[in-house]
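Reminder: ligand-aware prediction takes two inputs, not one.
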Amino acid sequence: MNYRHAFHAGNFADVFKHAILVGLIDALKAKPAPFCYIDTHAGAGKYDFRDEEARKTGEHVDGVQRLLIAPSLPDALRPYFDLLRAANSADANGHLNIYPGSPLIASLLMRPTDRAALCELQPDEAAKLKALFAHDARIGVHQRDGYVALEGLVPPKERRGLVLIDPPFEAQHAEFGLIRNALESAYARWPTGMYAVWYPIKLRRAVLPFYRRFASKGIKKTLMVELMLHPDDSPLRLNGCGMVIVNPPWQFDRWLKELLPELAHLLARDAHASQRVEWLTGE
Ligand SMILES: C[S@@+](CC[C@H](N)C(=O)[O-])C[C@H]1O[C@@H](n2cnc3c(N)ncnc32)[C@H](O)[C@@H]1O
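Here is what comes back for the chain with S-adenosylmethionine:
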């Protein structure tokens, strides 16, 4: 396990993933009943752009920093941007030094009655996560394999909520296999749960079998959203990324169709940027 999210925090893929995550959690909050947020690959929870890892790659410069210099932001991005501001409230100069990972984003949006279970296998990252939430009784941190832990975490007692599956994809093909197994077994136990899976896109042909699987396994409602910055024809670089959402909130496709063109415009490096929102199953 070599992957460390600190090298990539706040890059275009994080902006894509986290803007959508905020939309999903906000939709859960539309009803007063409590929900449970489950993060199978939680990371450290919080990152600092002044740290060596972020300075080395500078990936956030072409990611979240683009939002800071944009002349205006679309309405659909506002909740995510407000949350970034909330995570940096101590910085009076308006700088963005702190980048909230998915666990911190979820915790900032959760109500007192909502609950979260965070899984992180890497000991150093898990220790940071535990320290970050040491005084938050709503949040449980599990230093465990998130795929294995998921079996015991679903269905949650609240019977409503979201599972985020955001693995490191150190070995592309193998990771898709692990996701499929974990997702299908969780779905069998909790078919009404909401599941969001993030994945990198390098070669298009590598993601097509994953897409086809949802229909063949009888998963009834699956929405797919992609953001491409480069053509999907090179295995050597991160050309774009996607998210598959099982049981998305009502009219979430409409919200995504508003968000994605704006996001592609803000994050584009050249004329190759594109985006798609499509139903893989159901509608
Ligand atoms: C892409 S990062 C997660 C980023 C985080 N979800 C966010 O959005 O802020 C993937 C994380 O998964 C961890 N990891 C790798 N394999 C794992 C496994 N089998 N179970 C749980 N965590 C794992 C890595 O240590 C890494 O911190």
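The first strand starts at residue 36 and ends at 39. The first helix runs from residue 12 to 28. We will return to this case in the review session.
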